[in-house]
Structure formats: structure tokens, C-alpha cells
Amino acid sequence: MFDFFSTPGVSALLYIVAIVAFSSFTIGRTKNRTRAINLEIVLMYSIGIIGFSGISNFVFHAFFGEMIAQSIGWPAGNLFQLEVAGANLAIGLIGFLGFWRRDFWLPFLIAKTIFSWTAGAAHIIDLVGQGNAAIGNAGPILYLDFLLPATLLIIYVIYARALQEPAGVVRIRPLSTRMT
After folding, report:
1. How far is Cα 152 from Cα 168, in angstroms, rounded to an integer?
2. pLDDT (tens digit, 9 = 90+) per residue, 58-73?
């Protein structure tokens, strides 16, 4: 069973399912919803749950580092695992606390984006330079390193704009003004 959850991509899929399920349930139970409130709920669960995943990544890198290194196709016994564990813990805690504190959202998004895009670049360099096609290097994690932060940033920007709209009003600009 441990192998199932440690398979790259499976844990990410479970987190995405949790985000969708909890967000949908909460939005469905919320009265007087606005676009901003719906986006806030999605961000709250996304940042909180992804933050929790950072904490779990800390556990994997710190205590099961050899297994993780093997899945990435990198040498085991390297202290990079401890460094990555610490970065995951720091970013994960900021995100997890963001479940309760909206003022943690932007710092989490900045840190998560920089960390993930740097990790993604390292995976691409290793894939192209060394031909490392290990599942933990060139599998689902590679796509998630780029797509997850980008998606969160887009939702955050839409949320920030929705906060500026009067309640109940959705502004749609004519097509001609969208292109300029």
C-alpha cells in the first residue's frame, strides 16, 4: 500500500481530488455566493491542501530519501534530499497556514512557484543532458512543477480582480477591448 501512495503522480491526483471535492462541497453549502467568494474557497483549499502536501514531501525526502532519489534517478545518500526536505517543509507550512490566513497566500504562491519552476528546470536539464527518464524525473512531477503554480497564480489573479468588482456584478468587456 505504501508503494501505491509513493508512486509519482498518485499523491498529486489524490490532492487534486480532495481540492475539488472540498471546494465543491463548501461552495454548494455557501449562501450568497459571489465570484470572489467561490474563488476564495477554491484558493483556500488549494493552498491549504498543497501546503499539506509540502509537509508530506518533507517527510518523504527527509526519512525516505533513498527511495525518492531512486525514483528520480539520482544518487542516494546525497544531502540534497535534506535540503529539498527543508524547502518543502518551509513552503508547506506557509501554505498549510494559508488555510486559515489569507495574508499567507501571496508569499506561499511566490515561494511555491520559484521552488517548483526551479525543480522543473532541473528535471528538464537532467532529462535532456543525461537522458534521465526516471518516473520521478520525467513523469507527472515534471508537468506538475510547471502547471500547478501557473494554475494557482491564474486563479489568484482572477480572485484579486473579482474582489474589485461590486457584489453580484460580473464585468464582461467587449471582444474588441480584450485584444488591445
Report:
1. 23
2. 999 999 999 888 888 9
